[in-house]
Design a protein that fits this description.
Blueprint lengths: L2 H10 L5 H4 L13 H7 L11 E4 L6 H12 L4 E5 L5 H4 L4 E3 L5 H10 L4 E4 L5 H6 L1 H21 L3 E7 L23 H20 L2 E7 L1 E3 L12 H11 L2 E4 L7 E5 H13 L9 E3 L3 E3 L1 H9 L6 E4 L3 H8 L8 H7 L7 H21 L1
Helix pairs in contact: 4-11, 6-8, 8-9, 10-12, 10-15
Bound molecules: nicotinamide-adenine-dinucleotide (NAD).
Length: about 375
C-alpha cells in the first residue's frame, strides 16, 4: 500500500504547527485527508460560485495585473495579493494584501486558513537570468517553495495554478512550434525548477486528485510593471526606452526569435483556464502563446510609430545562451482545442498598445 509513505512524506513538510491554526474540534484529524475533510477545507457549496483567491509573489511583473483582473471578476475582497516585499501604496490600498513567504509553510497555512482561500495562484519565483546569478536562491524559492505550496494546496484542497515557461524547454527540444509534449532538458536552474513544477503538479493531480493547472507562458510584455530578471526582459524595457530617449541597447542578438504574449492575453488565458471545467482538459500543463518576433522585427515595428527610434546591440553572453536554448515559437493548438484559448494581440497591436500606454504614462509623469 502506498498510504504510509504518503503520510510520512506529508508530515515532514507543510504546516508543522497545524494545531495552532485549526479549530480544536479538528485537532485530532489525520494528516491524510478523507473526502469529508477535503470538503471541509475546500469551498463549501455556498462559496463554490466565488473563489477566495491567494496570489503568491504578487508584487512582481505579473501579480498586480492579475489581482486587478481577478478582482473585477470575483470582487475586490475575494482576491488577496501577497509577497515578501513591501507593497507600494497604490497596491496596498487597491485591495487585501498580506505577507506570505513560500519558504515558510506555516505562514502559508495561516494565510490560507485565516482567509478561507480556495484558489491559489503561485507566482513567486526567481526568473532565468537572476536564477543563473544566484542558484541557491532560485533552488530555494522555485523548488522548496513549490513543495510547500503543493502540500498546502493538497491539505486544503485548493485549486492551484502555477505558471511554467518556455524556459522549461532546452537545447534538445524542438525549437520551432515546440509541442506540449517534447524533450525537456533545460540548462538553467529556472528551467529545471519549472520542469520539476510541471511534473510534481501533475503527479499530485494523478496521485492525490489535486486540481493542479499550469500554463507555459512565453515572454510576457506589460506596460505597468518592471521586468523581473528574465531573458525576454528586453521586449519590456525597449518600450520604456523608446518613449523616454528614442534609443535602446538590446542585450540579445537582432535575430533572436522568441515566443511572446501581451500581458492582457496572458492574464485572460490564466483566468479562462482557471474557470474551465477540468473535464475539458486532456492534460494539466499547456503551452499558450500569441506571437514570435526578434529584437530587429520589434524595433522595426516601433520605428513605424517613433521614426527616430534607434536600436543598438550589446549582447550579454549569459542571456544570449539562455535565449538560444529556448523555443522560437510554441505550438499551443491543444489549449485552443481543449478550453478555447485565443489570443487578441499580435505584434502590430502589441506595439500600438504599449506605446500608447507609455505615452500616457510619460505625459502624466511630466505633468507631475
Ligand atoms: N514575466 C514573464 O515574462 C514570465 C514568463 C513566463 C513565466 N513567468 C512566470 O510567472 C510568474 C510570475 O512572474 P513575474 O515576472 O511576475 O516574476 P517577478 O520576478 O517579477 O516576481 C516574482 C515575485 O516573487 C516574489 N518572491 C521571491 N521570493 C519569495 C518568497 N520566498 N515568498 C514569496 N514571494 C517571493 C518576489 O518578491 C517577486 O515579487 C513566475 O512563476 C514566472 O516564472 C513569467
Amino acid at each position: 500500500m502506498l498510504s504510509p509513505v504518503v503520510g510520512g512524506t506529508v508530515r515532514t513538510l507543510a504546516c508543522s504547527s497545524w494545531t495552532s491554526v485549526l479549530p480544536v474540534r479538528f485537532r485530532s484529524a489525520s494528516r491524510l485527508q478523507s473526502p469529508a475533510e477535503a470538503r471541509f477545507h475546500s469551498a463549501s457549496a455556498s462559496e463554490a460560485g466565488c473563489p477566495r483567491v491567494l496570489i503568491t509573489g504578487g508584487l512582481g511583473q505579473l501579480g498586480v495585473g492579475l489581482a486587478s483582473l481577478l478582482r473585477k471578476r470575483f470582487g475586490k475582497d475575494n482576491v488577496i495579493l501577497s509577497d515578501v516585499k513591501k507593497p507600494p501604496s497604490h497596491v496596498f490600498y487597491s485591495g487585501p494584501f498580506v505577507y506570505a513567504n513560500v519558504l515558510d509553510a506555516q505562514n502559508l497555512c495561516e494565510v490560507v486558513v485565516n482567509n478561507r482561500i480556495t484558489w491559489m495562484l503561485h507566482y513567486s519565483a526567481v526568473l532565468s537570468a537572476v536564477g543563473e546569478a544566484n542558484v541557491p536562491l532560485a533552488r530555494a524559492v522555485n523548488i522548496t517553495g513549490l513543495h510547500n505550496v503543493l502540500d498546502v494546496a493538497k491539505e486544503y484542497n485548493l485549486r492551484l495554478f502555477i505558471p511554467s515557461t518556455i524556459g522549461a524547454f532546452g537545447p534538445t527540444s524542438p525549437r520551432n512550434r515546440t509541442p506540449d509534449l517534447s524533450v525537456q532538458r533545460p540548462r538553467t536552474i529556472y528551467g529545471v525548477s519549472k520542469v520539476h513544477t510541471e511534473l510534481m503538479g501533475e503527479y499530485y493531480n494523478y496521485r492525490y486528485g489535486l486540481d493542479f493547472r499550469c500554463l507555459r507562458y512565453p515572454g510576457v510584455i506589460s506596460a505597468n510593471s518592471q521586468p523581473g530578471g528574465g531573458t525576454t526582459d528586453y521586449a519590456v524595457q525597449i518600450f520604456h526606452d523608446a518613449v523616454k530617449s528614442g534609443k535602446f541597447e538590446c542585450n540579445l542578438r537582432p535575430s533572436t526569435r522568441l515566443p511572446m504574449m501581451y500581458m492582457d492575453d496572458c492574464l485572460r488565458a490564466t483566468l479562462q483556464f482557471m474557470e474551465a471545467p477540468a473535464e475539458s482538459f486532456s492534460m494539466r500543463t499547456y503551452n499558450v502563446t500569441a506571437m514570435s518576433f526578434t529584437p530587429e522585427e520589434l524595433a522595426q515595428e516601433i520605428a513605424k510609430h517613433v521614426p527616430e527610434f534607434c536600436i543598438t546591440y550589446r549582447v550579454d553572453p549569459a542571456r544570449q545562451a539562455i535565449a538560444d536554448s529556448w523555443p522560437t515559437s510554441l505550438d499551443d493548438s491543444l489549449a485552443r482545442r481543449d478550453w478555447g484559448w485565443k489570443h487578441n494581440f499580435d505584434l502590430p497591436e502589441l506595439v500600438t498598445t504599449m506605446l500608447n500606454l507609455h505615452g500616457c504614462d510619460t505625459r502624466v509623469a511630466r505633468a507631475n
